[in-house]
Amino acid sequence: MSDQGEIILEGKSYKLPVIEGSEKEKAVDISKLRQDSGYITIDSGYGNTGACKSAITFIDGDKGILRYRGIPIEVLAEKSDFVETSYLLMYGNLPNRAQREEFRNQLSGHSMIHEGMIKFFDGYPTTAHPMATLSSMVCSLSAYYPEHLDPKDKTHVNHLVPRLLAKMKTIAAYSYKKAKGQPVIYPKTDLDYCSNFLRMMFGTPAEEYKIDPLMVKALNVLLILHADHEQNCSTSTVRLVGSSDANLFASVAAGICALWGPKHGGANQEVVEMLQLIEREKIPVKEIIRRAKDKNSGFRLMGFGHRVYKNFDPRARVIKVYSDKLLANMGIKDPLLDIAKELEEAALQDDFFKERKLYPNVDFYSGVIYRAMGIPTDMFTVMFALGRLPGWIAHWMEMHSEGDGRIGRPRQIYSGETERPYVPMDQRK
Ligand code: CMC
Questions:
Q1: Is 89:228 a contact under the CB 8 Å cutoff?
Q2: 315 lines ligand 1 (CB under 6 A)
Q3: Which of 238, 331, 378, 410 has the CA that lies 20 to 30 A from 371?
Q4: What is the pLDDT of residue 3?
Q5: How far is the CA of 302 from the centre of ligand 1 (A)?
Q6: Residue 59 backbone dihedrals phi, psi, to 5 degrees
Q7: Is the pLDDT of residue 239 over 60?
Q8: Which residues make beta-bridge pairs with 26?
């Protein structure tokens, strides 16, 4: 097998080193191509561009495989919890008993946010989207740790990582409480991550919140399934921003903003709003499929399709099973789940979706579970952000520990005007 690729440009041959990953994926290294030939490569949407080597997550989109540090996502969803999975992603291995205890204690112990920050929430209108609040609050955390912001200093990073993980859930819950006009509920150190979050969301000072183990398990599973997905849009954003040596909070805040878009994490909110619209206006499923296929309609079937998965999304499979279980156990009959199933069936039988290999993605059923848990629709993307946080941190840490330290800076092919004169105002048309 040749370990070199070759490209011929204007009759001249250039050798390109071949790189092979641990799962035998292959790449040609074009990093010297411009220097040697004057050519760059163009790849809209980076669909064929590897920006780094990474040892965190493996995806085989054709086979529907997703593994964190080598462990299949289905196994983690069944056997692990979110805190342990976060440790695995960020530090490379499952924690032993002592490491797990220490990490849990750190996350519980650092859950409170500075009292001054609680006042920030009052400045936002109650209509503020919680993703707007979350991104700015996470960036604001930088203001409280001016002495620990050096991404190259391991003691700084180790100081910030558990604090960010612990505090982001508190910020998320407070943004909900403030929007509802309810007092914030302080975290309790003796509660695990998910129980703490649920209590801060749904507890009130008037009565003690009863923790439901079923809800805690469902939340753990959802967060685990969202915890990493290699070089997706928000993670690549965190890496790119981090490559300028921006601090951890600033880099993650940028990732939150990238996640917000409806083609990425914002899709879970859009799915439920689409299902609600279908229910409210009694739109036949056939008509929705017709609109999704019509390029002029500007409408896409939200929760369908994926850049990487072209067979099925393994996260969607696990979520579908859990949404059935959770709703049955809670005795909830949600008409939106029936509509979702009907839509899925219709789309999977349709040639347009078959030919383009469009299958339900992680967002198609997650909203149905969040609804059953009482989480409001505009908080869905915040839930995705809470889940994705350890993945963002893991990639940010990996980039700083292993990368070549170069700032991320793509090139372009300029397609504008060539040099032209400056026209004085009175001569302009
Ligand atoms: N409904 C209708 N048509 C679609 C859809 C859809 N949801 N997704 C893709 N297509 C069509 C698209 O019009 C195109 O058709 P053609 O080849 O005739 O031009 C073809 O399928 C390929 O689409 P693409 O936009 O080139 O694919 P992509 O890999 O660039 O985009 C995607 C992937 C997820 C952005 C896209 O499938 C989409 O917009 N889906 C809906 C939004 C969504 O559910 N996003 C959540 C993604 S999973 C969670 C996450 O990672 O954030």
A1: yes
A2: no
A3: 238
A4: 78
A5: 9
A6: -125, 130
A7: yes
A8: 20
Q: How is residue 410 written in tokens?
A: 């793509």
**Cβ atoms of residues 6 and 15 within 8 Å:** yes
pLDDT > 90? residue 324: no
Our answer on whether the CB atom of 226 is closer than 6 Å to any ligand 1 atom is no
Structure tokens at 427: 């001569």
> For 27-45, b where at least 16 C-beta lie within 10 A, e where not — what string?
bbebeebeeeeeeeeeeee
CB 293 within 8 A of CB 336: no
Amino acid identity of residue 303, one-letter, is G
- Entry field: residues in the chain: 429
The pLDDT of 398-405, averaged and rounded, is 87
β-partners of residue 14 are 7
pLDDT at site 2: 57
Q: Does 265 sit in the ligand 1 pocket, CB within 6 Å? A: yes
Judged on CB neighbours under 10 Å (0-12, 13-18, 19+), 107 is buried
384 C-beta closer than 6 A to ligand 1: no
Is there an atom of ligand 1 within 6 Å of 247 CB? no
pLDDT digits (tens, 9 = 90+) for 124-169: 998 999 999 999 999 999 999 999 999 999 999 999 999 999 999 9
Comparing 14-18, 214-218, 250-254, 387-391, the range with the smallest average pLDDT is: 214-218
Among protein residues, the one with the nearest Cα to ligand 1's atom 17 is 356
Report the nearest atom of ligand 1 relative to the CA of 292.
Answer: 2
Burial environment of residue 405 by CB neighbours within 10 A (0 to 12, 13 to 18, 19 or more): exposed
Catalytically active residues, by annotation: 306, 363
Phi, psi (rounded to 5 degrees) for 231: -90, 50
On the question of pLDDT at 388 being above 90, the answer is yes
For a mutational test of ligand 1's pocket, the pick from 356, 366, 392, i.e. the residue with the most ligand atoms closer than 8 A to its C-beta, is 356
Q: Give the neighbor-by-neighbor strand order of the sheet with 57-60.
A: 57-60, 65-68, 71-72
Residue type present at position 209: Y
Residue 307 CA, ligand 1 centroid: distance in Å: 7
